[in-house]
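Intended use. Records like the one below are meant for learning the mapping from a protein sequence to its folded structure. Do not use them to infer anything beyond what is encoded.
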Amino acid sequence: MNNNNFNVILVVVLVCISFWLGVSTNDQSIQEWTKFKDILSILISALTLFIAWVALNRWKKQHKYEERYKAIVSIEEDIFKCYNAFNELKHSNTAMSLIDNGYDVSLEWQKAAEEYSSKKYNLEQKLKSLYLSKERYNRFFSNKEKDEIESILNEYFHAMDNYTDKSRDIKESTVLGKLESSVNNTHTRVITFFDYLRKNV
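Structure written out for the chain above:
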């Protein structure tokens, strides 16, 4: 029941009570006033129940809003963790490519190259966490949103998997650049989508 309907009902009830009281003032018997007291008690009880019901519904709506917002923010955080892990892996991959091509690199680059396997594993773990977050928070989204999230995150996972699977075997920088661009572009689309969801909670 919205506020307008409630206001109309309240006005009608008050008009009826006022009319009945006006008629009752001509009666010398106290019996009518006893009836009025009983009716008023019933109305106050009903009004109290109605106010409690409205408050409960508002609390539920607010709670759902807060939980949905937290779900979106949590997924966004996992997306950024994946992207940071991707950039770390890309750095290690670049270091390994420099060494493979015979460049004399600094200790920092040598260390980055040695960390390639751990960076790859780290990215894989972050992608798993993102997948689990998506599954955990599914209940906060409509069926249409679930389908959109599934589709866009599948693109993201595919782009990331392509990079981790193929980047070490590719020698041409243009082909490697395409893999990296695919991840960057998909990341931008994913973040834009979740940013839209968050702003329209």
